[in-house]
Amino acid sequence: MKRFVISLFLLIGCAGFVSARNYALVSYNADNGLSHNTVRCIAQDQRGFMWFGTADGLSRFDGVVFRVYNSENLRHGLLNTSVHALCADRKNRLWVGTEQGVYLYDERKDAFSHFGVRTQYGVVITGRITRIFENGDGKIWIGTEAQGFFVYHPEDGTLEQNSRLADAVTDMAGGPDWNVFVSARNGTVAEFDSEGRQRLTVLSTERNAHVSSVRSLCYNNDELWSCFETDGLAKMTWSGDSAAKWTRRGEIPARVLLPLSRGELLVGSDDGLFVFYTGSGEIDPVTDMTVRSEPYTYTVNALFRDREGGIWVATQYNGITYLPRRLKPVEHMSLKIGERGKTLATAFAEDDDGNLWVAIDKRGVLKVDARGRVDTEPFHGASESFRREVKNVRTMLVAGGRLWLNPCRGRLCLRFENGRGAQLPQRPRGENLALRRRRGDAFPRRCRNDLCRDAVGVRPV
After folding, report:
1. In what helix (H) or strand (E) does residue 115 lie, and over which residues does it extend?
2. Do the beta carbons of residue 233 and residue 254 sit within 8 Å?
3. What is the DSSP string of 9-25?
4. Which residues contact 146 (CB under 8 A, 6 or more apart)?
5. Long-range contacts: 449-454, Cβ < 8 Å, 24+?
């Protein structure tokens, strides 16, 4: 279903897709309270706070103001404020990866403490942290610049190190059956089981004459995608049970990936944001409709989807950018209905087939299909009296495969199904009688502005 803003007397939005990639972007930077304009990582805790790791400290955002933890005041305990990785786990612990090790945030004390757990061989995590990732079984995977990766077991507090793949780990991504894909700067990508045992080498330096450093990984819908430093975007192609190879699919300088929907990836690159269609290989640049559809050209370091469906973009020099929920673009559509003059849209509804129904005051109801085609006479199979009544619809609702309409006159509630219109009985029977006795006349004579569906059925309210 496409998303439209109907250019009528009223502007109202409806959900869906369009081919044009214009988005209403919102930007935040140091002028808005962000601790630094170089943002490297993003996380959201269980309370809904957004956390941004920057070149100088952490910024916590509540949707209105930023709370900053940076080098100007170290009493919070974050002794190294160059933040490279963030992870908010299911126990609401915030893991902070810095230039010199890992810190944990204690919400009750509003303070940070150094993560000093050692392996059985006495190794402690030091140096730059590149990635912190919580697997599906609750284990914390920590990638480093010079010590390989570590797996922390919260149930017994033990820490294990694995540096056999490579010293410099660049990214981690959850795979099937709680397995984890790990990429390294030497061009190697491997799959590990949930205990940290290596299962599969996806790409190894021994089998490839040309080696390109892996920037990031993305596993979605049983597909593994990677951003290579010099080779762009690539998809993994399986070759037997023990190895795999990469198939190059794009030439954009991709840095990070985020799944949008099946067949679509949001690509953050050195040259801005793009939408990549995995089936066709086509690419659409993301543009900002708030500045006359200018292309979004900032260098992107990280992408994150919050629990409300919004997309957060961390940039190298320009702070953060927010793309509203589900990244659904907006298209303006101008409708000409009947005689010229003011046109008021009074109600919207979307049916199971993705058609958008638009009620126009004193003009009737339109149907806009998923391709944007407008049908100004969607009730041509209904009776003449039904078509007269839909001229003043105030509320619409799709329920049970039927379109319900509530006009602003009489004691009417209209139903449209399979090309036929019907008027609900003026005196409901059965279960509706209890509702009628409890709340008064189910379909009162005065104009009602809403419909609701409850356990009894659909009714005006």
Report:
1. none
2. yes
3. SS--EE----SS-EE--
4. 127, 128, 167, 168
5. 449/394, 449/395, 449/406, 449/408, 450/395, 450/406, 451/395, 451/396, 451/397, 451/404, 451/406, 451/413, 452/397, 453/397, 453/399
**Count of C-beta atoms within a 10 Å radius of residue 41:** 24
Report the sign of the C-alpha dihedral through residues 8, 12, 17, 22, in that order. positive
Distance CA 233, CA 217 (A): 10
Structure tokens at 355: 């058609």
Q: Residue type at 127?
A: G
* Structural tokens at position 418: 């399979």
Burial classification of residue 302, based on how many CB atoms lie within 10 Å of its CB (0-12 exposed, 13-18 middle, 19 or more buried): buried
How would you classify the pairing of strands 283-285 and 393-399? unpaired
Sequence-distant (6+) residues with CB within 8 A of 332 are 4, 5, 7
d(CA 74, CA 106): 15
User: For the chain (length 461 residues), average pLDDT per consecutive 10?
Assistant: 31 32 85 96 95 96 94 89 96 95 94 95 95 94 96 95 89 91 89 86 56 86 87 76 66 88 89 89 81 78 93 96 67 58 77 84 83 82 80 81 73 63 51 32 42 52 51
User: In sequence order, which residues have a C-beta less than 8 Å from that of residue 68 and are 6 or more positions away?
Assistant: 33, 34, 35, 57, 58, 59, 60
Q: How far apart are CA 326 and CA 306, in angstroms?
A: 10
Q: Which residues contact 252 (CB under 8 A, 6 or more apart)?
A: 232, 233, 267, 269, 271, 274, 276, 283
Distance, CA of 272 to CA of 296 (rounded, Å): 5
What is the length of the chain? 461
Please name the amino acid found at residue 10.
L
Instruction: Check: CB of residue 46 under 8 Å from CB of residue 58.
Output: no
| Residue 439 host element (H or E) | helix 431-439
The distance of Cα 123 from the centroid of its chain, to the nearest Å, equals 38
The rounded distance, in Å, linking the Cα atoms of 82 and 98 is 5
